[in-house]
Amino acid sequence: MLNLLRSLTEEKAVKLLSLAFFIILLVLLFASSTTTDEGDSLMHFLYAKYAFRYPAHFFNQWAKPVYVMVMAPFAQFGFAAVQLVNIFFTTANFYVVYRVAKQAGIPNAWMASLIYAATPLSVLVSFSGLTEPMFAFATLLSILLLQQKKFYFSLLLFSFLPFIRSEGLLVCGVIFIYLLVIEKYDLIPLLLFGHIFYSLTGYFVHHDLMWVFNKLSYATLSSAYGSGRWFHFFNVMSEITGVVVKYLLWAGVFYGFILLIRALRKKINETEQQELWLLYGIFLAVFAGHIVFWALGIFNSMGLVRPIAGITPLIAIIALRGIQYVTASIQQWKAGLYVQYLLLAAVLVFPFTSNVYAYKWNRDFELKADQQAQLQLVKYIKQHYPNYNQQIMYHVLPWISIQLKQDWFNPNQHIHINDAFTRNQFKKGELFIWDDWFAVVEGHAPLEAVRKDGRFKEVITFEAKDYWGNVRKTVLFEYVGKDE
């Protein structure tokens, strides 16, 4: 076995580690019940699942057209199939992050793959229907192609990033500046290709050539979720990366500023120029973008950590730069390499410690408490309302629709709570499902307001405690009208 390991090239070793990483993720997929997120994760799945029934989904700016196009065939086999595709993307990221680090000339590039695998957020989003794993892969691959000077393929791929996640616009902005810096002016129009393609193809759905901008759901200088502190994303970085990687990341960022100073003095080579713009530039653009959006309360930002999963591969590479930087003064001795290995070991061990930011099975790999309460409700509905699939239900819970095999987009099966109160077209016997988050935040229907309405009979309540001891509540109401 030792002889086999010694005979492996670095790249072959990373490929074997990629296979091992995929197997671990696969085992976790079948052992866990998590969907990672109870809202967007499930909604992205529903948009993809029903895309063939509602072709407009292929041109929906919230659902993201490229994501829907890729995921729609797999979504027909259920949510687990979408999770499996995201696991493939995460595994691909594990390998490509090594290739990008290697191309950047960073020593021990294989460490970047292990750092990526050890960042909790990278793993957790793999078990979702979210867009981040695909975005991370497309960004990484675009960077690798650009490093290899495959300009046309790279820039065309970059141009479609905004149709996987809106942060793609920030990434394209960085690439635009990079092309100016390297004086590739003639290639800049390629960054518009994705928008031109979807403007034309989506015209037959939206009858508006500018729909790619006019239908952009985040194009608002306000947010329904309020705003937060400027240092919010710095404070939650441990949730994203773990404590060890967080400090290595900031060490790597410091090295990036040294690169920037050298670039301003024009004492930088081509490979370092690529590293500065393609790794540091994209990371800082996306990270700083989310800081600003949340602090100013714009673009419907919620201050969530999960969008950063789209750039965790870059965080891994920059953290590796951090390892190289903090050990630079002792690298000429063997002790320098041992210190690097020690830091890498700390990165790998951290996710399995008792630290609050390390993995917790019942927090990270099981259904959330509100989903558990909703499952109890689904069982109750099936037992007491045998014709439930022949009547309209009012709620804002994608998990309910998935479990009841409800077409979320069919108004004869499901209507959003907001629309229900606005339209005021309730009929006797129809079911209204309230929950303590989506019904309040998205549906603007506080529980007491529903109870005081007088038209609804409170049927039953289901509760479940979350990891932190908070009680999550789901309540079933039946519409009885004013007379009863």
Structure description:
The termini are far apart. This protein folds into 2 domains: 9-364, no CATH class; 369-479, D-Maltodextrin-Binding Protein, domain 2 (3-Layer(aba) Sandwich). The mean pLDDT is 93. It has helices at 2-7, 10-31, 40-49, 65-75, 79-103, 110-118, 120-124, 132-147, 151-160, 168-181, 193-201, 203-206, 211-214, 232-235, 237-241, 243-264, 270-296, 312-326, 334-349, 361-364, 369-384, 398-403, 417-423, 438-441, 447-453, and strands at residues 393-394, 414-415, 431-435, 456-465, 471-479. With 484 residues, the protein is mainly alpha-helical. It is 57% helix and 6% strand. It is globular and about 80 Å long. It contains 25 helices and 5 strands. The longest helix is centred in the middle third of the chain and has 27 residues, at 270-296.
Largest sheet: 5 strands, mixed
Q: Considering DSSP H and I runs of 4 or more, what fraction of the residues is helical?
A: 55-70%
The helix-and-strand class reads: mainly alpha
For the termini, the CA-CA separation is 77 Å
Q: Uncertain segments of ≥5 residues (pLDDT<50)?
A: none
Shape: globular
Summary, kept brief:
This protein has 484 residues and is mainly alpha-helical.
Give descriptors for this structure:
484 residues; mainly alpha; D-Maltodextrin-Binding Protein, domain 2; five-stranded mixed beta sheet; 25 helices; 57% helix; membrane; transmembrane helix; Dolichyl-phosphate-mannose-protein mannosyltransferase
